[in-house]
Amino acid sequence: MVSTNPPSTARAPFASQTASQPAVASSSMPPELEQTLSMLSSHRSVLGYLLITRGQHPSIIRHSGVVFEGEQGKRYAAVVARIVESVRSGLEEVRADDGIGAAGETDVDEVRFVRIRTKRHEIMISPGEGVEC
User: Fold this and answer.
1) 48 occurs within a structural domain
2) pLDDT for 23
3) Model pTM score
4) How many domains does the chain have?
5) CA–CA gap between residue 27 and residue 33 (Å, rounded)
6) In this predicted model, what pLDDT tens digit does every residue of 60-95 receive, in sequence order?
7) 36: domain range?
8) How many other C-beta atoms are found inside a 10 Å radius of the C-beta of residue 84?
9) Which residue windows does the record flag with biased composition (Polar residues) (predicted)?
10) Measured on CA atoms in the order 55, 60, 63, 69, is the torsion positive or negative?
11) At residue 108, what are phi and psi to the nearest 5 degrees?
């Protein structure tokens, strides 16, 4: 997000949302998640990652990279939450307009992965449903 490089060589932060509680010890995360976060952090083009709670006031569970520290990290977390909510509400609106699904059906299309590439930034968002930590 903070790179001045073109997208093909941009350093890409990775943001993920979960329904977990804010205070997390790294030893309590599932090994698969630990491995994925470690792999992302070690990639030369990744500035860092955020693991944040869902909701109107997201909080950072865990992060990597100085770009996500302090107030700047909180701003990134809020922006990611707004992006996910905007995509989710847009999908609901489109679904209501296109008449797909039976009346009263509660099956909602879920956002699984969002990738945003601009001239200077690349953001990847993978909203997950609850990582038990």
Assistant:
1) yes
2) 39
3) 0.68
4) 1
5) 11
6) 989 998 889 999 999 999 999 999 999 988 988 888
7) 14-22+30-97+111-127
8) 20
9) 15-31
10) positive
11) -110, 140
Q: What gap in Å lies between CA 51 and CA 49, rounded to an integer?
A: 7
The reply to whether 42 falls in a domain is yes
Q: Which long-range contacts (CB under 8 A, 24 or more apart) does 109-115 make?
A: 111/84, 111/87, 114/83, 114/84, 114/87
- Tokens for 21, please give them: 């509680």
CATH code for position 37: 3.30.450.30
Q: What are phi and psi of 31, to 5 degrees?
A: -55, -35
The string of DSSP letters for 86-119 reads HHHHHHHHHHHHHT-S-TT---------EEEE-S
User: Does residue 132 lie within any of the structural domains?
Assistant: no
Which has the minimum average pLDDT: 16-25, 101-110, 115-124?
A: 16-25
Rounded Cα distance between 74 and 81, Å, is 11
End-to-end CA distance of the chain: 27
pLDDT score, position 122: 85
